[in-house]
Amino acid sequence: MENGGTSSFMRTRRLESYFNASTGLSVKETVKSSVKEELELKPRTDLYADSDGWASVLISWIKIFICFVTMMFTTFVWALIMLMLLPWPYERIRQGNIWGHLTGRLMIWILGNPIKIEGAEFSNKRAIYISNHASPLDVFLIMWLTPTGTVGIAKKEIIWYPLFGQLYVLANHLRIDRSNPTAAIESMKEPEQW
């Protein structure tokens, strides 16, 4: 044990006795005073929506709306293509990647975000791409930047995302059950059969 077998209650008691001995204040009084000092030092930034003004906020919302409409349109078109390609699983994966390349590029172009790509010389080799995305836009960037024929892995609940989930299933990408590790491993062996 890292704390020598003492319980959390005892560690707290020692901490409290340290504060009482060194400052003459209890833990609660010390915490209250430090929080009060911190609040007084920080300016209130939550009162302002954006420092650039209402015009840039409006433009951002318009761009996001256009991205959403673009994604829904391309998703609908590619879903129809995927339905026609039901008998050919590899071709559906390829078409799903083409959809991701097109949609990703369109979204980045609409938003006007600069993208810096490093390591492009390795893009033609077989690889495992691992990403932990922080926003929905990251998914489209990943699909845009990975080579055509790449198989994606996502949680099984992705099928419930409107249009995107259905296209994901039609593109024959993998869905894993995170609550069942054995089934998750078995579902990742599926592409070996192709």
TrEMBL record:
> What parts of the sequence cross the membrane?
61-86
Where on the tree of life does the source sit, at the highest rank? Eukaryota
Q: Which GO terms describe its cellular component?
A: endoplasmic reticulum
Recorded hits in SUPFAM superfamilies, A to Z, give: Glycerol-3-phosphate (1)-acyltransferase (SSF69593)
Any GO BP annotation: phosphatidic acid biosynthetic process
Keywords associated with the record: Acyltransferase, Membrane, Transferase, Transmembrane, Transmembrane helix
Phospholipid/glycerol acyltransferase domain segment(s): 115-190
Please state what the protein is called: Phospholipid/glycerol acyltransferase domain-containing protein
CDD domains (alphabetical): LPLAT_AGPAT-like
